[in-house]
Design brief:
5-stranded parallel sheet, alpha/beta, globular, 48% helix, 9% strand, 675 residues
């Protein structure tokens, strides 16, 4: 199937994408071909969690995660299949990849070379922002300093070898989902940019006269929320601060090189499971906030699907999101005029307010030693957890209205959800076994000596200050796997566990902080603990590779406020490690958070482990994006409660957890649950 070349910049308002990838390289390739044939003008590749965290499909931690939230890419053969028949020299390809970004870019370059393309003409972006991974998404691998070294090497390499490639997307998108206010989103993204640019400058790999080229290739990836005016003003504030920073701190004189270049995905966190049809207008309003202001218009837009709060969208759902962009771009006149907001007193005042607040927060981060130090100290993470906790409290009090969730809840039956089991796409469980078999076959078929030499060279280079891109390219050409490349760097760099931010978040009110429902739950927690001979202990666990920890952190904060002793060790733990923690801490209840779709694999493994350890009386509750059919299955297996995004009242969840503990110990339900 032929695909048109990417249109000229003057012929398009932005690059139109849908974020996509699942199951296998072949399945994802077919999806990309269909989307391009429908008028999509760029590719946005979603990788599965093993790929994002540097594991092969047959690793213990990959169980249940292969192909779930993206496409598995284990080696050069997988990337060949992923882009089979797609002209990479005519694409603008975005790859949402961070810790192993260097590895995926190397695979992409080698495939392009095999296609006969001029590597210097390749256009696209690797997300490659590791700072926000420590703060929100959780797909980091290495310690911050070593991660920054990988980013620095990529930036220095692409400036000369791939000058049309954006080596990093400073990514504030996930900061907003982790709780960031607009001021925090701007400040922490700018602080990350400073850390990267300072590191590149200080590395000496780029001559001073070329530093403007470095700045020109730095792009941003932002979140557009539902507050239209505030979000649009946020983008104008971003642009103003970026121009100021690059001129004053780095001396970039060319205004074109100082241009604030950004892509956007509108806010997935704001999509609701309740009345999900409302998500369509939310997506449209959020898209308008980053397209109507011509002077601060996104260069690339990707939209989530209306049903992402329910599960993995189907191709039809993704098509709907693409059509939303196309209608705005091609049917309306909203993009045909000069900036509609220039001269607005209201807009200028809001922009000035955001700029002033962001400067102040950037100064606080700088006082701590910069973004890396603010990660290691837990400062930024604690601020985000506290902000999200306050956002949740406003939602539960009704101060912030979400239509269909905490107001206007009466609804007609939704024909889009008439068959819930087909309202989202599911990944065949056989996908994981096939990927495991395929990577083993790949290892067995390759020549082992080039692999050994390439990995040895990578290990040696990692112990020096040499740029690691050449050694990584040699690994790609030799047939090294994702897990092998990352494994060598784990040996040299070590691994890292970021602060959870829970301890730094506000709360812990001994009387419920004026919240009558919370005070009542606290009384029940205290009384139940007394009946069981001690304080109630809750283990909050994140099994598998799912790093989206926002929900788990909010449960941990509220449970602490409700009087539980909370055990939370962070992300990326095996079921066996969680069982060991439950035994060691002698917990009364285990709460598992899973948002990656691996619940039917990792939750039963924890249940089996608890039973084998003699903890049959320790109930398990689960929270996450769990379709109804899967929730029924989990309850059949012994899960006491399943909570999904429609369960917005965290204090109510705490009350139900108390119910579960009392039932597990045959205690009478003589204390009423909060209303």
């Amino acid at each position: 199937m032929p695909f048109p070349s990417a249109p000229k910049e003057s012929d398009r308002p932005w690059v139109m994408r849908t974020y996509a990838g699942h199951s296998s390289p072949a399945e994802s390739n077919a999806l990309y071909r269909r989307n391009l044939a429908k008028g999509q003008t760029g590719l946005s590749v979603a990788f599965d969690l093993p790929t994002q965290t540097g594991y092969d499909p047959d690793d213990e931690l990959a169980v249940g995660e292969v192909g779930k939230v993206g496409v598995p890419v284990s080696h050069l053969g997988d990337l060949r299949a992923l882009f089979d028949g797609i002209p990479l020299d005519g694409m603008n390809t975005s790859m949402t990849i961070n810790a192993p970004a260097m590895w995926l870019l190397a695979l992409y370059q080698v495939v392009a070379e095999e296609h006969g393309h001029d590597v210097a003409q390749l256009a696209g972006t690797t997300q490659n922002d590791i700072i926000k991974e420590y703060l929100s998404r959780g797909t980091y691998v290495f310690p911050p300093a070593q991660s920054l070294r990988l980013i620095t090497d990529m930036v220095a390499y692409t400036v000369t070898a791939m000058p049309r490639w954006n080596p990093i997307n400073i990514c504030s998108y996930h900061l907003q989902e982790a709780g960031a206010t607009p001021v925090q989103e701007i400040a922490y993204a700018m602080s990350t940019a400073i850390a990267v640019l300072d590191a590149v400058r200080d590395s000496g790999q780029v001559p001073p006269e070329r530093f403007g080229d470095v700045v020109a290739r730095i792009s941003f990836f932002v979140n557009a929320g539902i507050r239209f005016v505030e979000e649009m003003c946020k983008m104008r504030a971003f642009g103003r601060l970026w121009d100021e920073l690059t001129l004053e701190r780095y001396g970039v004189q060319d205004p074109a090189q100082r241009r604030f270049r950004y892509g956007v995905q509108v806010n997935s966190l704001g999509l609701t499971e309740a009345q999900p049809e409302n998500n369509v207008q939310r997506i449209v309003l959020e898209m308008l906030g980053v397209t109507l202001s011509r002077d601060a218009r996104a260069r690339a837009v990707q939209l989530p699907a209306w049903n992402e709060a329910l599960g993995l969208p189907r191709p039809w759902d993704q098509q709907w999101s693409l059509r939303l962009q196309q209608v705005l771009a091609h049917e309306t006149d909203l993009l045909e005029y000069e900036d509609l907001f220039t001269g607005s007193v209201v807009v200028e005042a809001k922009v000035a307010e955001l700029v002033e607040g962001a400067r102040a927060e950037m100064a606080r981060v700088a006082e701590l030693g910069g973004a890396v130090a603010a990660v290691e100290s837990g400062y930024m993470k604690g601020r985000l957890v506290a902000s999200l906790a306050e956002r949740r409290r406003r939602l539960e009090r009704g101060d912030d209205v979400v239509v269909g969730v905490n107001r206007f809840q009466a609804t007609e039956p939704n024909p889009l959800l008439a068959d819930l089991d087909t309202a989202v796409q599911t990944v065949d469980p056989a996908v994981e076994a096939a990927a495991q078999q395929a990577v083993r076959a790949w290892r067995a078929a390759r020549d082992p000596e080039p692999v050994r030499r390439a990995l040895a060279a990578l290990r040696e280079a990692a112990g020096t200050d040499a740029n690691l891109v050449p050694a990584t390219l040699d690994c790609a050409r030799a047939g090294v796997t994702t897990g092998e490349w990352a494994g060598v760097l784990r040996e040299v760099f070590g691994e890292y566990r970021a602060p959870t931010g829970v301890a730094a978040a506000g709360g812990g009110h001994p009387d419920g902080g004026g919240d009558a429902d919370l005070a009542e739950v606290r009384a029940r927690v205290r009384r139940t603990g007394e009946e069981l001979g001690g304080r109630l202990r809750l283990l909050v666990g994140k099994p598998g590779l799912d790093g989206h920890s926002n929900g788990a952190e909010q449960i941990a904060v509220r449970a602490r406020d409700a009087g539980f002793e909370v055990v939370y060790q962070g992300i990326r733990l095996t079921p066996a490690q969680l069982v060991a923690a439950a035994v060691e801490e002698d917990v009364h209840v285990v709460g598992l958070s899973v948002l990656s779709g691996s619940h039917l694999q990792v939750v039963p493994a924890v249940l089996d482990g608890l039973r084998a350890a003699g903890l049959d009386d320790v109930p398990v509750v689960v929270g996450g994006i769990v379709p109804d059919a899967d929730a029924r299955r989990l309850r059949e297996l012994g899960v006491a409660r399943v909570f999904t995004p429609k369960d917005v009242g965290i204090t109510g969840i705490m009350g139900e957890i108390v119910d579960v503990v009392r039932a597990a110990h045959d205690l009478p339900d003589d204390v009423p649950a909060p209303v």
